[in-house]
Design brief:
Blueprint (H helix, E strand, L loop, with lengths): L14 H8 L3 H13 L3 E3 L5 E3 L20 E2 L14 H13 L11 H13 L7 E4 L2 H12 L5 E6 L3 H9 L3 E8 L2 E2 L1 H9 L4 E5 L12 H12 L5 E5 L19 E7 L1 H4 L6 E5 L1 H12 L7 H12 L5 H21 L11 E5 L3 H10 L2 E2 L1 E2 L10 E5 L8 H12 L9
Parallel strand pairs: 3-13, 5-6, 5-8, 8-9, 9-10
Antiparallel strand pairs: 1-2, 4-11, 6-7, 10-11, 12-15, 14-15
């Protein structure tokens, strides 16, 4: 396989057949197949058996994408509405002025004291337990460092399905096993989480709100049920991703503190701009110490210029989460109503995305492309859940939504004419 003799999609022989051909015990072959799965080289496809992955574990799911046709609309990328992002000139100028007065040099604190203070205040206001604060280059960087601090290749991680495509890419790249957990509009389903943890998953990643791609958000009742599950598995490494904190008006119901190892991560990408590659995280002392210790042996620290710019934006309240949530909510809710009026089921409780189940993913994506809409294939976000497409509403005008709903309806039910409310 390493020589390339087995191409992507090639079926590996059944365990007993391979064992007989190699003259070894079937358990030896089973262990080898398991190692290949854990390293992301092969995948198990039900009755189709074990096959070489169509792409390496390090190939991002974003490669499963489509380009908008000439004159068409691209609602596939998941970008925020640039009109809702704050201007950065004053924040960057303030950071530059601080640098001019006192440049950051080797040996100084890795985290800006002001950013620490603001982050701690924000976490405390949302009921997150107290703990040290670290800064990483975005949510995925934080998640990778936390996983690496406690897990080893072959360990299992429970993740939302559908869920964040970059996380689904990261796990096999780290040699970790993915255990998919069902998601509904209230977040991870407690029974599915319990089964994953009982089956041996050592970590659980939960999106607190503005879940990508479904828009799910963990409410008070769901949080209570998940806390009960976690209380029965106190050794679980819990990662709560609150990347949407700046673009939602839904309250946070944290799960943190029930397990011995936990973190809560907040990225500024969605609310302040994707190019501000910065996230803050808090958690138990051992986890944060390991994260920062390993960080010192790599990049060292996240630029204090960026940290000071973000601190300025937070101090000046450059983003009003309620107003931004309302702006996204108007568009998202309007599209959901248009789809419902046409008999199309869709999800989008919070954030900027709408998740639409479809009978056949490739056909739906192709039909929407012909209609002038580039959407994100659900394969970018799925492990075992049925086909779907993701629509990002952030750049849309309300006047465009009926036409989009018509196109989605035709793509979902091509043999039936659109229904109008």
């Amino acid at each position: 396989m390493g020589s390339g003799a087995l191409p992507p999609g090639h079926a590996l022989p059944p365990l007993r057949e391979a064992a007989a051909a190699l003259g070894v015990n079937a358990n030896t072959v089973a262990a080898a197949y398991r190692t290949l799965r854990e390293r992301g080289v092969v995948e198990t496809a039900g009755r189709r058996g074990t096959r070489v992955r169509a792409r390496p574990a390090s190939t991002p799911r974003e490669a499963i994408s489509v380009e908008a046709p000439p004159g068409g609309r691209d609602i596939a990328q998941g970008n925020p509405d640039v009109a809702l992002l704050p201007a950065l000139d004053q924040a960057l100028a303030a950071a530059a002025a601080r640098h001019a007065a006192r440049p950051t040099l080797y040996g100084e604190a890795a985290v800006s004291p002001e950013l620490v203070s603001l982050a701690r205040a924000g976490f405390a206001a949302d009921g997150v337990p107290g703990g040290p604060v670290a800064v990483t280059s975005g949510s995925l960087d934080a998640t990778e460092r936390v996983l690496a601090a406690h897990l080893r290749p072959g360990d299992a991680v429970a993740v939302e399905d559908p869920g964040w495509g970059s996380l689904l890419d990261l796990l096999p790249a780290l040699g970790l096993r993915t255990v998919p957990v069902d998601v509904d509009d209230d977040g991870p389903v407690p029974d599915a989480v319990a089964r994953a943890l009982e089956s041996g998953a050592r970590a659980l990643v939960v999106t607190a709100r503005v879940q990508n791609p479904t828009g799910a958000a963990v409410g008070a009742e769901r949080a209570a049920a998940l806390r009960a599950v976690l209380a029965a598995h106190p050794a679980t490494l819990l990662i709560e991703d609150d990347h949407g904190f700046a673009i939602t008006d839904l309250p946070l119901h944290p799960l943190a503190g029930l397990t011995s190892r936990w973190v809560v991560v907040r990225s500024v990408a969605k609310g302040y701009g994707p190019d501000l590659r910065l996230a803050v995280l808090t958690g138990d002392s051992l986890t944060l110490d390991r994260v920062q210790g390993r960080q010192r042996l790599g990049p060292g620290w996240v630029s204090r210029l960026l940290q000071d710019a973000v601190a300025h934006l937070w101090r000046e309240r450059a983003v009003d989460p309620v107003a931004v949530a309302r702006a996204y909510g108007v568009r998202r809710t309007a599209l959901l109503k248009e789809l419902a009026a046409r008999g199309v089921r869709a999800h989008g409780r919070s954030g900027m995305n709408v998740w639409v189940p479809v009978p056949e993913e490739s056909a739906a994506v192709a039909a929407l492309l012909r209609a002038g809409w580039a959407v994100a294939p659900g394969a970018r976000f799925r492990v075992a859940t049925p086909p779907a497409v993701r629509l990002t509403v952030s750049g849309l005008d309300l006047a465009e939504l009926p036409a989009l709903a018509d196109a989605v309806t035709a793509a979902v039910r091509p043999s039936q004419p659109p229904r109008y409310g």
